[in-house]
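User: I'm writing a tutorial on reading structure tokens. Could you give me a worked example: one chain, its sequence, then its tokens, then a sentence or two explaining what the tokens reveal?
Assistant: Sure. Here is the example chain.
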Amino acid sequence: MTTAQDVSVKRSSKAGSLRRYLERVIHNEGPMSVADFMASALHHPLYGYYSKRDPLGRGGDFTTAPEVSQMFGELIGVWCVQSWRHMGAPDPFILAELGPGRATLLADLLRAAKVEPGFLSAARIHLVELNDTLKEKQRRTLSDIAALGDINVEWHDHFHDLPAGPLLLIANEFFDCLPIRQFVRTARGWCERCIDINREGGFRFVVAPDPLASDRLIPSAVRGAAQGSLVEIGAAAMALMTDIALRLRHDPGRALIIDYGHQQSAVGDTLQAVKNHAYHDVLSDPGEVDVTAHVDFDALRRAALAQHVTVTGPISQGDFFTALGIHARAESLAKNATALEKTDIASALKRLCAPDQMGALFKVLAISSPGLAAPPAMGAHSQGVLLGTHDRS
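And here are its predicted structure tokens:
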């Protein structure tokens, strides 16, 4: 029998092992970049935060939008069906998700897609996931979907492992977990912010003594920022976006990116850690906390445009789901709901769309192959689609 004390000891051992690993690297190689620290804290194959655990839900450290309400995944399902039609309804096509969590979004998407049986029969589902614990939960979630028949799912470690062919790609709260570099404007120029070991044996931020040889890495909009300003560069995010855009330039399809971040490149420190649904010190407990940063949607947009694909957005999550018809969907669900369920539906709607909650901070970006019609809900004359009254049962 495993006790709470046993679990605590195991977690402390894991955190201590990663800490010792990071200390060895810094001792041998000098101060570590924020990107390298973040990559190890999240993705170290043995000790990283995402290596084994399920971080979602009340018992985890955070809750993502698909877990808030079925409306989130359902309306993305409608968006995907319409995008598939824009692509000429290819059969077969790849329906892929990056970092699908417990596959809650995908399950709700597939239920909603029953409005178009051809979509379901043509879809070949591929999930990009490294976490074995989450893979098993994804299998269980998808096996529980009623009335959809057999669902064949394949898993991959990386985006570039996806098979060729027409593609619909979903990435919800995926880019915020990709490592970033940080740079500080000093009298010497832009110097990288790094992580070193302090006198007490903990970690601390330091600024590298030598500036960048060239400031071309720094977005032009912020190169002239005042001394002391900090800028974040999501090199991993831009590299992935370049790969996605290259794929969509050669294979017909569309990608939908939903995440929290800013529309324009700007200065500011957004590196943060979360544990037990509360903010936590970024440098404490590496491997035991979720470390993220706000997504620079302007940088993603520029990376995609450089590959000559069509980029739409970013727009706010609130505007996106409003255009898709989320208010009508909420009314439909509430018709046969109990008083408590109606309260939950209203609360979820507010959380997803209100500007002071997820509605404004979260943005939506669409990347399309050249020549496709404008993405659903992202044009001036988008029309919402009302679904039936089915729920997750």
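What the tokens reveal: The radius of gyration is 22 Å. The CA atoms of residues 18 and 370 lie 45 Å apart.
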